[in-house]
Each structure stands twice: as structure tokens, then as C-alpha cells.
Amino acid sequence: QVQLVESGGGLVQAGGSLRLSCAASGRTSRLYDMGWFRQAPGKEREFVAGISSSFIRTYYGDSVKGRVAISRDNAKNTVYLQMNSLKTGDTAVYFCAVSVLPYKRLDDISAVDYWGQGTLVTVSS
């Protein structure tokens, strides 16, 4: 089992920045791709960003590309999401996600093996 705990959400004005963190615990020896999804009220869960365990590969959803950056610290079993130039449309609950299988990309939601509980990001105009 892997437990994921997100932090860093909150209220920010449009144009501002926010950094989310997600710390993994439990069977962390099997962490492969880690990443982020988000879900706005009444909408489906949407892929935001992913990063491979070797840092070789990062990938982003089209709606955030160019405005966010994903990184990870394997020593701390933590993944980060730096969000810049935030828009009101970025308001959502942001979920950390991980795959414990290799060669799985998180932009395929079926690749997610574990989810965090979510952290709310609210962007005001």
C-alpha cells in the first residue's frame, strides 16, 4: 500500500502562483510515475502533469502546458507541482496520483494505482 498526502492548496488571486506538494509513504520502493490530476465541480477528473521516477520524462495536460512545472525528490518520496499564471478556470481539487508499475503514463487515468485525498485550489478574479 502507498499513502499520498497533498499540501499547499489554498486561495490565490488570478495571475498568482502556488506550489503543491505530495508526500508518499508506505511501499515507496515501488513508486514509478507520479503526478497530478484535478477535478472541478461538475466536471470529470482531468490529468494535469506527470513525471517518471528517473526524471527523464515529464508530461503535461494541454490546459496547463506552459504554466505549470512538475518535479520530484525521490529521497523524500515527494512530488511537487509549481503553478504559475493561475486562472479562475484552474479552480479545482487537485489530486496526487502514482503508478506502482513501470512503463505506465499517468495521462492514462487507468494507470493510476493510488490517489491522495485532494487539496483545494481556489483562484479568485
Question: Can you describe what's shown?
Answer:
Strands 2, 4, 5, 6, 9, 10 and 11 form a seven-stranded mixed beta sheet that branches. A four-stranded antiparallel beta sheet has the order 1-3-8-7, with no helix packed on it. The mean pLDDT is 96. 0% of the residues lie in helices and 49% in strands. It is built from no helices and eleven strands. The termini are far apart. It has strands at residues 2-7, 10-13, 18-26, 34-39, 46-51, 58-60, 68-73, 78-83, 92-98, 114-115, 119-124. The chain is globular, with a radius of gyration of 13 Å. With 125 residues, it is mainly β. A hairpin with a 6-residue loop joins β5 and β6 (58-60).
Q: Summarize this, please?
A:
The protein is mainly β and 125 residues long. It has no helices and eleven strands. It has strands spanning 2-7, 10-13, 18-26, 34-39, 46-51, 58-60, 68-73, 78-83, 92-98, 114-115, 119-124.
